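Regression test case RT-17, inverse folding.

Input:
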């Protein structure tokens, strides 16, 4: 999918295309790396965030209605299966969501789009839990 063939009403285009999604993802991981309130979430990610930054960027591009970079590289996302090695409980879910919601707020994502994404992201993040509590 090229930039020219992407529907202008998708969240992908509303966020500014690839540069906007990349900026959101980078800010998300910067917050995770720096804010003490996201320490438990940060621990789950290991010593470097470089791979996670790229994979989330590639995934979100397609999930938001843009190019399918993740699928082109890795096939179907199989999110839950790919995250089973990581302990994801309510704390990790809540920190991930809080970090992403703060990143969207800091990046001035329009309120209507932000609310829509928050609902979808909560459903996905809650489904990813694989540990109690």
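Golden output:
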């Amino acid at each position: 999918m090229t930039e020219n063939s992407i529907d202008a009403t998708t969240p992908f285009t509303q966020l500014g295309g690839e540069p906007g999604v990349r900026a959101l993802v980078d800010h998300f991981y910067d917050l995770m790396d720096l804010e003490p309130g996201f320490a438990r979430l940060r621990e789950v990610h290991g010593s470097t965030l470089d791979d996670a930054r790229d994979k989330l960027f590639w995934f979100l591009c397609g999930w938001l209605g843009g190019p399918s970079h993740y699928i082109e590289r890795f096939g179907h996302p199989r999110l839950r299966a790919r995250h089973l090695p990581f302990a994801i409980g309510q704390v990790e879910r809540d920190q991930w969501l809080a970090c992403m919601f703060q990143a969207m707020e800091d990046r001035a994502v329009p309120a209507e789009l932000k609310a829509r994404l928050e609902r979808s992201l909560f459903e996905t993040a809650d489904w990813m839990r694989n540990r109690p509590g």
